[in-house]
Amino acid sequence: MPPHFRFSSQAAADAQRLNEELANLKAELAEERSLCGTSKAEVHELRVTWTALEPLEPSDLIQAASATSEVSRLQAELASQSNKLEQLQAQLEKQAVKAQEVRAQTLPAYADTLAQDLQPHWCATLAKDVQACGDSELASPLKADAFCSRPIVGRRPAAASLPALPKAISRLRAEVCVCGGSGGIGQPLSLLMAMDDNVGELSVYDLDFAMVPPGGVAADLNHLEKKVQVKGYVKSKEEKAIDVLGDCLKGCNLVLVPAGLPRKPGQTRDDLFKINAGIAKEVVEACAKYCPDAVIALIVNPVNSVVPAMAELYKKKGLDPKKIVGVTTLDGVRANKFVAELTGEDPKNIEVPVIGGHAGVTIMPVFSQDKHAAKIAQSEIPALDKHVQDAGTDVVNAKNGKGSATLSMAYAGARLGKAVLAGMAGTPTTECAYVMSDVEPGCPYFTSKARR
Q1: Which ranges carry the Lactate/malate dehydrogenase N-terminal domain (predicted)?
Q2: What is the rounded average pLDDT of the residues 141-170?
Q3: Which residue among 89, 311, 395, 417 is least enclosed by CB atoms within 10 Å?
Q4: Could you please report the per-residue DSSP string of 184-213?
């Protein structure tokens, strides 16, 4: 044997030991592979994937560092905004406490002032509505009858001395009655009043021989998308209104009376007085008994005669004759429309006061008091005067004796009615009406501006 193939016994032992250790290592490696479940193919796949990854460039490291810095800045800004929000919430809580203190101081005073001016029959309704909204401080004084003894015409709280009205009492929810509500004027008038947000209850009254039963009118109006509750009331010709209209009139704030017979061609307003005065008297006497504090708006021709007669009737009963109001609003409505036609202006921007009375030459439009009407040539004024004065007769003739001005009269009556209710609700309003007056010496009754 060559010298380099000769091993010492010690070398042979070392080789044997190394072979054994290598065998042990292989066994341990096999065991580890079986535990992790990784095959050679999987290991190869992982190596290929790792090799495919591109190494990071220095610019990538710079962008990553910049992004980390931006995140840190946004986190700091968010922390700052959170602190500001906490401060604002603290301020809001302080303001809420202060507002509650102011509310506690002002609402009782409000309730006292309002209760002195509201009528008894709707103080309780207001208190109920306010209490339903959670305003117990405002509701409690309104319940007291002692605060609700004053009539509806009287002192209103000075707007400048009180803060804005709470929303809970911003509307009146008044009780309104339309006597003659099934007629040509009464039906559209009832419709227009039912659409007024200040009206909570509407009574429609008429005779049993009316073409449309008042109950049918009420049923029809109750389908409107309004909170108003409408009821119909009927009586026979033989019955007296004062005996049967208690439920209809009791608690009313406003009574509109489009009752009586209409004019026919060739018939004057004076011809109607004997008939229509009796009809008006029956209604007014019933109002004196069941709703003496209500405003009674008469749409009964001849207004110039019927209103003074009914006002004197009220005076004899110890009631306020100024509660009796003659509806002459249609004269002003016509004057506004005719001026608009001449000038091209929008009628809603025109307000011509009409004074005097409600018949023929007693109807006196004061065109000079409106800035648009004042531009009309003086030579055209006499014809315009006559156009307004004869407008009612023109409608009667145009209908060939089958009616008078019904739709426009309903519009005008609703305009006056809405103005009255707005005034009751605390909004000062002005309309021309035929009332007991001292504005013109020698004319105890006169159409002039009446402020509610």
Answers
A1: 176-326
A2: 36
A3: 89
A4: TTHHHHHHHHHT-TTEEEEEEEEETTSSS-
Structural contact between residues 127 and 111, judged by C-beta atoms closer than 8 angstroms:
no
Residue 449 is predicted with a pLDDT of 85
d(CA 118, CA 317): 23
Q: How many whole angstroms separate alpha carbon 145 and alpha carbon 123?
A: 8
Query: Average pLDDT over the chain, rounded to whole?
Result: 80
Alpha helices, H only, 5-57: 9-36, 40-52
For residues 220 and 225, give the distance between their C-alpha atoms in angstroms, rounded to a whole number. 12
Catalytic residue status for 358: yes
Residues in the chain: 452
Catalytic option among 4, 121, 223, 358: 358
Residue 355, CA distances (Å) to 239, 258, 368 in order = 38, 21, 13
Buried-state track 426-448, b at ≥16 Cβ within 10 A, e below 16 = bbebebbbbbbbeeeeeeebbbb
Which domains does the chain show, CATH number per domain?
86-147 (no CATH), 172-451 (3.40.50.720)
DSSP string, 126-166: HHHHHHHTT-HHHHHHHH-GGGS-S-SSSPPPPGGGS-PPP
| 145 has pLDDT over 60 | no
Q: Nearest 5°: CA angle at 217, between 214 and 218?
A: 90
DSSP state string for 320-337: -GGGEEE--HHHHHHHHH
> Is-cis flag, bond preceding 58, omega within 30?
no
Bridging pattern class, strands 229-235 and 199-207: parallel
Q: What is residue 284's predicted lDDT score, i.e. its pLDDT?
A: 97
